[in-house]
Amino acid sequence: MELTVLGLSFTLFLILGVPVAFAIGLSSVATILVAGLPVAVVFQKMVGGMQVFSFLAIPFFVFAGELMLYGGIADRIVRFANSLVGHVRGGLGMSNVVGCTLFGGVAGSPLADVSAIGSVMIPLMKKEGYDADYAVNVTTHASLVGAIMPTSHNMIIFTLATSGIASVSVLSLILAGLIPALILTICNLGAAYYVAVKRGYPTHGKFPGWAEVMRAFGAALPGLLVIVIILAGILSGAFTATESASIAVAWALAITVLVYRSLSWHSFLKACAKACKTTGVVLLLIGISAAFGYFMALYEVPQLTGELMKSVSDKPWVIFLMINLLLFVLGTFLDMAATILICTPIFMPIAMQFGMDPTQFGIVMLINCALGLNTPPVGSVQFVGCAIGGISVGQVMRTIAPFYGALGICLMLVTYVPAFSLWLPSLVK
User: Fold this and answer.
1) Which structural domain, as residue segments, surrounds residue 250?
2) Which region, left, alpha or beta, applies to residue 164 given φ > 0 means left and ψ of -120 to 50 means alpha?
3) Which of 316, 340, 303 is nearest to 418 (CA)?
4) How many whole angstroms from its chain centre is CA 113?
5) How many CB atoms are closer than 10 A to CB 78?
6) What is the pLDDT of residues 165-178, one digit of tens each?
7) What is the per-residue DSSP string for 250-275?
8) How confident is the model at residue 204 (pLDDT cuts 50, 70, 90)?
9) How many CA atoms lie within 13 A of 172 on its CB side?
């Protein structure tokens, strides 16, 4: 009875348009009342869920991303990407993919990525004769790479969600995401090129020469170094994964204020306000999801789900496919952090039971969640891209198939070829 109340009330609140965090909290309270337990249990679990030292990385990574967004780093990255691949067929689309990948590694946020690169590239592509749906699809899908890059705060959230299930270190997750990020970028380049050739888009000038490429690279290098600093610092033991987030903030401030001198006081205040808002939402969601997760564990939701899936098939490849499909469906209705916090305790034990490594599952989860960011009705990345491009979501969805296909190929490779996500972490064990 209690489990029925938990599931139905949560679904009902989502249908009514209640924000996810409040839907989780209200469904938890409803379950408490039906079960006859003290309401204080919800608040105890909320407080306990947020009192984790490693969560200090979340506000710092978010703040670093906002500083990068408002500090003019995106413009330099776009110029470098354009000098590198702008001469190829559909060159601006290819430049967009490379620029989003590089900025995603710096900011660690798909939403910041599409806001920064999209505001530069989408209007430019439309001006050069590219269709708005193509410009938006290229940008929104390329920006998803930021979810699996070293500066992604969603990796910290995933390590929290695995508490009590398996031990997944932030370092192993950071390393595990590098090769899948490269694969996803190549797939996005393939999709962008395929559509550009099919539609007959022009090249964007001639190759400017390696001297110009190196000049553009030199201008973008200080911003791009944040990835190298984080990886080198953690691997060398100079600082922990949690401390690396504060290093990212210090570096972002130094670059945008002292080197580029592009961060105004007004922009700094906007970055602070946006980081505070995002951090508050994420931590509220983490706390409330801890209470929600308590009930799922109490009423054995992972075990019941596992039994149901095993009744369909006992073949690992079928189970992994079902997990991906369910995560995709749930990701269309939930934000990324909510999907990670709710679904990890349910599906991770099942994936482990059928032989998937916890770290590999983490990357599979993050890619699925990233796909949800670009899928209505809760596709925040897609909404931002459409707003910048001045086009409706319906128009974009009609031509999204090649880009979904690129993301699907990457997801299947990471799901069924463990080496793509586990080779680099194995080198540092």
Assistant:
1) 38-427
2) left
3) 316
4) 10
5) 26
6) 888 888 899 999 99
7) HHHHIIIIIIS----HHHHHHHHHHH
8) low
9) 19
Asked whether the beta carbons of 107 and 275 are under 8 A apart, the reply is: no
Residue of 109, 187, 117 lying closest to 155 (CA atoms): 109
Q: Which residues of 193-225 are buried (b: 16+ CB within 10 A; e: fewer)?
A: bebbeeeebeebeeeeeeeebeebbebbebbbe
Question: If DSSP states are collapsed to H, E and C, what string results for 137-159?
Answer: HHHHHHHHHHHHCCCCHHHHHHH
Cβ–Cβ under 8 Å, residues 148 and 370:
yes
**Domain annotation covers residue 321:** yes
pTM check: above 0.70: yes
Task: Please tell me the total count of domains within the chain.
Answer: 1
SS3 of residue 246 by DSSP: helix
Give the DSSP H/E element, type plus range, for residue 304.
helix 301-312
Residue at 17 is within a domain: no
User: What single DSSP character describes residue 201?
Assistant: P
Is the per-residue pLDDT at 231 higher than 90?
A: no
Handedness of CA 258, 264, 265, 268 (dihedral sign): negative
In terms of residues, how long is the chain?
A: 429
Residues 341, 288 contacting (CB under 8 angstroms): no
pLDDT digits 0-9 by tens, 325-364: 888 887 777 778 878 888 888 889 889 989 999 999 999 9
Q: Is residue 6 part of a domain?
A: no
Helix 91-107 / helix 132-142 crossing angle, nearest 10 deg: 30
Share of the chain above pLDDT 90, in %: 20
Greater pLDDT, 316 or 284: 316
Distance separating alpha carbons of residues 356 and 304, to the nearest angstrom: 19
Whether 71 contacts 267, CB under 8 Å: yes
Rounded Cα distance, 370 and 114, in Å:
13
Query: Which residue is it, tokens 């009590």?
Result: 164
Distance CA 14, CA 51 (A): 27
Residue 186 lies in a domain: yes
- Top-confidence range, 18-22, 197-201, 224-228, 299-303: 197-201
Using CA atoms, how far apart are residues 354 and 300, in angstroms rounded to an integer? 18
CA-wise closest residue to 152 among 290, 244, 273: 244
**Helix, strand, coil % over all residues of the chain, rounded to 5:** 80, 0, 20
Alpha-carbon distance 195 to 350, whole Å? 38
Beta carbons of 144 and 407 less than 8 angstroms apart: yes
